[in-house]
From TrEMBL:
<keyword id="KW-0808">Transferase</keyword>
<dbReference type="Pfam" id="PF13292">
    <property type="entry name" value="DXP_synthase_N"/>
</dbReference>
<dbReference type="InterPro" id="IPR009014">
    <property type="entry name" value="Transketo_C/PFOR_II"/>
</dbReference>
<keyword id="KW-0460">Magnesium</keyword>
<dbReference type="GO" id="GO:0019288">
    <property type="term" value="P:isopentenyl diphosphate biosynthetic process, methylerythritol 4-phosphate pathway"/>
</dbReference>
<dbReference type="GO" id="GO:0030976">
    <property type="term" value="F:thiamine pyrophosphate binding"/>
</dbReference>
<feature type="binding site">
    <location>
        <position position="155"/>
    </location>
    <ligand>
        <name>Mg(2+)</name>
    </ligand>
</feature>
<dbReference type="InterPro" id="IPR033248">
    <property type="entry name" value="Transketolase_C"/>
</dbReference>
<dbReference type="Pfam" id="PF02779">
    <property type="entry name" value="Transket_pyr"/>
</dbReference>
<dbReference type="GO" id="GO:0005829">
    <property type="term" value="C:cytosol"/>
</dbReference>
<comment type="pathway">
    <text>Metabolic intermediate biosynthesis; 1-deoxy-D-xylulose 5-phosphate biosynthesis; 1-deoxy-D-xylulose 5-phosphate from D-glyceraldehyde 3-phosphate and pyruvate: step 1/1.</text>
</comment>
<protein>
    <recommendedName>
        <fullName>1-deoxy-D-xylulose-5-phosphate synthase</fullName>
        <ecNumber>2.2.1.7</ecNumber>
    </recommendedName>
</protein>
<keyword id="KW-0479">Metal-binding</keyword>
<comment type="function">
    <text>Catalyzes the acyloin condensation reaction between C atoms 2 and 3 of pyruvate and glyceraldehyde 3-phosphate to yield 1-deoxy-D-xylulose-5-phosphate (DXP).</text>
</comment>
<feature type="binding site">
    <location>
        <position position="184"/>
    </location>
    <ligand>
        <name>Mg(2+)</name>
    </ligand>
</feature>
<dbReference type="GO" id="GO:0008661">
    <property type="term" value="F:1-deoxy-D-xylulose-5-phosphate synthase activity"/>
</dbReference>
<feature type="domain" description="Transketolase-like pyrimidine-binding">
    <location>
        <begin position="326"/>
        <end position="490"/>
    </location>
</feature>
Length: 636
C-alpha cells in the first residue's frame, strides 16, 4: 500500500490475510496493527457504499480474537443480526470483494451461506443466533462431532423474547454452547428496558432499596455470618451493587457466566476465549464490553446516527446531501404529532426503531404516550392491544419485514377482538441495499387473509396522512403500508380527512386496459398511462387505496369496460393484491377479463438499489408499458 505522505509503498498485514488461518500466527502487537488496518478499510469502504458502520467498528478486536482462538469454519460462528460482520467478511476471504459491499451483485451486508463457508447461518433479523447455535450444538452431539457452536449477540438483540426462549432451552439441554454477549449499551438508539439496566448494574433506587431491605431482613435473622455480610453490604452502595452481577441472571438460567471483559483488549479477549475453549463445558456466556463506533470519532460520539449510514465524508463525518425530498417516514412522524395534539387517546409504540420509524418528535413531545419496547415486535402488538382495550388508540410503527414476527399477535390479540390498533407498516416493498431479509414484500399477502382488518396503501405522502387519520379514527384494526424513501413531492394536507372505507379512486379514464397499481406503484402507472396514450392505447388508472376491503364495484365495472387488467404491486405475487383482484373477477363471473399480475416473483429479491429491483421485477414505468402492449396483443 502507498503511503501518500512519504510516497513509500509498504505491504500491509491485511494484504496477506486470506483466511483466519493467516492471523493465527501473528503476535499480539501485529494483531493490534491489523485491527487498525481493518478499521481503516471499513471506514473507507462504508463512506462510499453506506452500511452498518458503528456496529462493525465495535467488534473488530472481538472478531479477530474469535477467529484467532476458534477453529472456524469447523467451529460455527453465528452473528446475530449480522450487521456487525464486516471484519468477519474481511478476514474470511472477502477482503478484495469488500469494495462491493451492499452494491448490486456485490457482497451482502449480512452473512450469506452462498458467499462463504464461514457464513454458517444467515441473519438480518435479530435474536436468532442462540437458537441457531443451540440447534447446531445438538446436531453436533447427535452426529458425534466435536466442533463448537458460538453465538455472538448484542445487548439490544438480547432483549427479544426469542433470545430468552433459546437461553431457557439451552440451560435445560446443558450442551457445550458459547454465547458472546456484545454489550455496547446500545440498540440502534440507547438500549432500553430492565435487562439493559441489569447488565450495566444501573439498578434503580427502588430495586436497590427493596432488595437491600429483603437481604438485611433475611441475613439479620442469621447469626455471625449474616452480620458480617451485612456490614460489608452496608459500607457503600457500590459494594452492595457489586454483590449483584449481570451474571446472576444467566447463572439462574444454568449458564456459566464470564465477564464482563474489555472488548477492545485483544490479549484479554484471546486469553478468555482460550480458557473457555479448553476448560469449560456446558452452556457459557461471555460478557464482552465494547464501544459502538470504536475508532471513528463521529461514530463514537453519535453511534445511533452511524448505526446504518449512507455514503459520508470521512473527514467531517457529514452524510452526502440528500435531494431534499421528504420521506414517507417523516410524513408519518409529523402526522402522528399532528393527530396526537388533538386526540389524547393516540399513543405510539416502536420496537427499538425510533428514528427509523420517524417517531423522535412524537417521543419528545408526548413522552407519556410513547413506548420503545425494545426489539420485541410480538410484545409491541399485544401491548398495543392492551392499550386499545382500555380506550387508547395505539399506533404500532414497525418495518414490514419485522412485522412478520408478530403475525399471531395481529390475528389473535388485535383482529379477533376487533381492537382499534393501527399498524403503521414502514419499509413496505423492496428496501434496497439491505436485501432479502429486510424487503417488505410479504405484508399484503400475510394481512389480506385476516378478517376484521382494513389494509391501506397510499399513492403519495399526502394520502398517507389521510390514511393514518382514517386508521386511528376507525374504531377497529387497521394497517397502512408505505415504502422506504422519498415521497412524490406533493403538498401536504393541513386538515386531515377520513377516507370512505373500501372506496378507490379513478385517476384516469380509459377504454382499452385498466391499470390497478397499489401504493408506490400508482405514479409509475400514471406515467405508463401517458406513455401508452402516445402509442394509441387508452389506459384507465384506478388507485384502489384499500387492499382490503377492495372496492369490488369500482374494479369490476372498469374491468368489464376495459376487458384487460394489469395489477401492479411492490409485494410478492403469491397471495398479493393481484390475487385479490383475480378472486374478485372470478366471483363476479368476469373470468373472461384478460389479466396480467405484475409483482415480485416467487423468489427472494436480492439487494440493490430500489429502482433496479423494481425494474427487475417489471414494476417500473417501461415494464408496465410493455406488459400493457403485450396484453393488448394477446389473442386467445
Ligand atoms: C426482529 C428485528 N427487529 C429490528 C431490527 C432492527 N435492528 C437492527 S440492529 C438493531 C439493534 C441491535 O442492537 P444490538 O444487538 O445491541 O447490536 P449493536 O447494533 O448494538 O451492535 C435493530 C433494532 C432487526 N434487525 N430485527
Ligand atoms: C440491521 C437492521 O436491521 C437495521 O439497521 C436496518 O438496516 C435499518 O434499515 P433502514 O436503513 O431502512 O432504517
Ligand atoms: Mg448493542
Amino acid at each position: 500500500m502507498l503511503n501518500t505522505l512519504t510516497g513509500i509503498s509498504h505491504r500491509t498485514l491485511l494484504e496477506d490475510i486470506n483466511s483466519p488461518a493467516d492471523i493465527r500466527g501473528l503476535a499480539i502487537p501485529e494483531l493490534v496493527d491489523l485491527a487498525q488496518e481493518i478499521r481503516d478499510l471499513i471506514i473507507r469502504t462504508v463512506s462510499r457504499t453506506g452500511g452498518h458502520l458503528a456496529p462493525s467498528l465495535g467488534v473488530v478486536e472481538l472478531t479477530i480474537a474469535l477467529h484467532y482462538v476458534f477453529d472456524t469454519p469447523q467451529d460455527k460462528l453465528i452473528w446475530d443480526v449480522g450487521h456487525q460482520s464486516y471484519t468477519h467478511k474481511i478476514l474470511t476471504g472477502r477482503r478484495d470483494q469488500f469494495a462491493t459491499l451492499r452494491q448490486y451483485k456485490g457482497i451482502s451486508g449480512f452473512p450469506k451461506i452462498k458467499e462463504s463457508r464461514y457464513d454458517v447461518f444467515e441473519t438480518g433479523h435479530s435474536s436468532t443466533s442462540i437458537s441457531a447455535a443451540l440447534g447446531m450444538a445438538l446436531a453436533r452431539d447427535i452426529k458425534k462431532e466435536t466442533h463448537r457452536a458460538i453465538a455472538v449477540i448484542g445487548d439490544g438483540s438480547m432483549t427479544a423474547g426469542l433470545a430468552f426462549e433459546a437461553l431457557n432451552n439451552a440451560g435445560h439441554l446443558d450442551r457445550d454452547l458459547i454465547v458472546i454477549l456484545n454489550d455496547n449499551e446500545m440498540s440502534i438508539s440507547p438500549n432500553v428496558g430492565a435487562l439493559s439496566s441489569f447488565l450495566s448494574r444501573k439498578l434503580s433506587g427502588k430495586t436497590m432499596r427493596r432488595v437491600k431491605a429483603h437481604i438485611e431482613e433475611r441475613l439479620g435473622q442469621l447469626s455471625n455470618v449474616g452480620e458480617n455480610i451485612l456490614n460489608i453490604l452496608r459500607k457503600s452502595e457500590e459494594s452492595f451493587k457489586s454483590f449483584f452481577t449481570p451474571g446472576m441472571l444467566f447463572e439462574a438460567l444454568k449458564f456459566d457466566y464470564i465477564g464482563p471483559i474489555q472488548g477492545h483488549e485483544l490479549e484479554d479477549l484471546i486469553e478468555t476465549f482460550e480458557g473457555v475453549r479448553d476448560n469449560i463445558h456446558g452452556p457459557v456466556l461471555i460478557h464482552v464490553l465494547t464501544k459502538k463506533g470504536k475508532g471513528y470519532l463521529p461514530a463514537e460520539k453519535n453511534p445511533g446516527l452511524y448505526h446504518g449510514v449512507g455514503p459520508f465524508d470521512i473527514a467531517s463525518g457529514k452524510p452526502q446531501s440528500s435531494n431534499g425530498s421528504i420521506s414517507y417516514t417523516e410524513v408519518f412522524g409529523s402526522t402522528m404529532v399532528q393527530m396526537a395534539m388533538s386526540d389524547h387517546r393516540i399513543a405510539a409504540i416502536s420496537a427499538a426503531m425510533i428514528t427509523g420509524t420517524g417517531l423522535n418528535s412524537f417521543a419528545q413531545q408526548f413522552p407519556e404516550r410513547f413506548f420503545d419496547v425494545g426489539i420485541a415486535e410480538q410484545h409491541a402488538v399485544t401491548f398495543a392491544a392492551g392499550l386499545a382495550s382500555q380506550g387508547l388508540r395505539p399506533v404500532v410503527a414497525i418495518y414490514s419485514s419485522f412485522f412478520q414476527r408478530a403475525l399471531d399477535q395481529i390475528i389473535h390479540d388485535v383482529c379477533i377482538p376487533k381492537l382499534p390498533v393501527t399498524l403503521a407498516i414502514d419499509r413496505a416493498g423492496v428496501v434496497g441495499d439491505d436485501g432479502p431479509t429486510h424487503h417488505g414484500v410479504f405484508d399484503i399477502s400475510f394481512l389480506r387473509f385476516i378478517p376484521n382488518l382494513v389494509v391501506m396503501a397510499p399513492k403519495d405522502e399526502e394520502e398517507l396522512q389521510h390514511m393514518l387519520y382514517t386508521a386511528v379514527t376507525l374504531g377497529g384494526p387497521a394497517a397502512v403500508r408505505y415504502p422506504r424513501g422519498p415521497g412524490e413531492r406533493v403538498e401536504l394536507a393541513t386538515t386531515l380527512k377520513k377516507l370512505e372505507i373500501g372506496r378507490g379512486e379513478v385517476l384516469v379514464e380509459g377504454d382499452d386496459i385498466l391499470l390497478l397499481p397499489v401504493g408506490n406503484r400508482v405514479y409509475p402507472a400514471l406515467h405508463a398511462a401517458d406513455g401508452l396514450r402516445k402509442v394509441g392505447i387508452s389506459a384507465a388508472v384506478i388507485n384502489p387505496r384499500f387492499i382490503k376491503p377492495l372496492d369490488d364495484e369500482l374494479i369490476s365495472t372498469w374491468a368489464r369496460r376495459c376487458g384487460r387488467v394489469i395489477t401492479i404491486e411492490d409485494n410478492a405475487r403469491q397471495g398479493g393484491f393481484g390475487s385479490a383482484v383475480l378472486e374478485l373477477l372470478g366471483s363476479r363471473r368476469l373470468a373472461f377479463v384478460r389479466t396480467c399480475l405484475l409483482a415480485h416473483p416467487d423468489e427472494f429479491v436480492e439487494h440493490g438499489p430500489q429502482a433496479v429491483l423494481w425494474k427487475n421485477s417489471r414494476l417500473d414505468t417501461p415494464s408496465i408499458i410493455s406488459a400493457a402492449i403485450d396484453l393488448m396483443q394477446q389473442k386467445d
